[in-house]
Amino acid sequence: MAKMLKFFFAIILLLSLFLVATEVGGAYIECEVDDDCPKPMKNSHPDTYYKCVKHRCQWAWK
Predict the structure, then answer these.
(1) For the Late nodulin domain, which residue ranges apply (predicted)?
(2) CA 18, 21, 23, 28: dihedral to nearest 10 degrees?
């Protein structure tokens, strides 16, 4: 019986972590123009930048 409870507890824990991770991954930065988007980090590729597409900042290549 104790093994079954541990198993169900583990399944519930993993499912809840999965649901939280999928909610966080869907976040977007809203914008009106390209200047509203964040600047690339210093250690990122020099040919990449954020671009405002349909009022959302998206990663793009030059």
Answers:
(1) 1-58
(2) -150
- The reported pTM is 0.50
Q: 48 and 59 in contact (C-beta within 8 Å)?
A: yes
Per-residue pLDDT tens over the stretch 35-50: 999 888 777 788 888 8
Q: Is 25 within 8 Å of 38 (Cβ atoms)?
A: no
Annotated domain spans of the chain = 1-61
Q: Measured on CA atoms in the order 9, 14, 17, 19, is the torsion positive or negative?
A: negative
3-class SS of residue 52: strand
